[in-house]
Amino acid sequence: MYELSVPVLIRGLGVLSHYMVRAAAFAETRGIDPAELADARLAADMLPLTGQIQRASDTAKNGVARLTGTQAPSFADTETTLAELKERLDKTIAYLETLTPEQFAGADERSIALPFRNVSAAMPGRAYLTQFMLPNFFFHVATAHGILRQRGLDIGKTDYLGGF
Amino acid sequence: MYELSVPVLIRGLGVLSHYMVRAAAFAETRGIDPAELADARLAADMLPLTGQIQRASDTAKNGVARLTGTQAPSFADTETTLAELKERLDKTIAYLETLTPEQFAGADERSIALPFRNVSAAMPGRAYLTQFMLPNFFFHVATAHGILRQRGLDIGKTDYLGGF
Known about the structure:
homodimer; mainly alpha; 2 strands; Four Helix Bundle (Hemerythrin (Met), subunit A); 164 residues
């Protein structure tokens, strides 16, 4: 369960962290206000880049906290700049790096309550990870990618996958 | 390895199949040419909805074929309509449904060659699944979601996650 979550999430968060650096350089080169990139979105009623990064961070840190029965650090969702978003991602990675495989003992069978409003449901950790947490995490990584790609950032699938 | 791949992929492909039905109804209600939806994309040099669906199908079927050392059905990438895309998704699901947990015995250790042009690399099945195949699969599901969402289709995160 450790191997299925922590390195996978660290890789995805690292990709987003790298995107923040690329986006800042891109904004400077093109004379775009970086705050405009941070606030860009695919649809008026979808989260902007800021929100995609915050939710990727939350899905990762709160997900592993649920799986291990520990407490994740709380971040206030006050980031507005690309540099602050990078810091949020890097802090999330730093937290994930403190977790050990031993803390995931029994996580596959642990009953996890789904974090939905108005829905009371729980599932075993293994199903939670593969059917909820990872799809949700990659939704936010891919949507952040799509937002930046649509604004002209020169990133591709190999950037998204994180290099092999 | 079966549990980490087949049900997860079937769920994601089922979500996309459902999106095709929703998109067709949406196009009819709004008087939009459904072919326009099928050809919609987030950036001029990104794949359109058609390509996102085809790559989600390929990532799923070719990925499990690599993991099990079997042969996936080959589809010709000739789909142009929402109905044909739904058929492609449903055929992919039908193939995945033929696979059994027994066929995944040893898949976690099986050496998998990465399907990159100009890159010669291989990794154990478990890393291939979590670091390459699932991130890649969800990229295409989430990007299809983003394309349809941007065009006005009323879908949200609970649709994407597939219902619990």
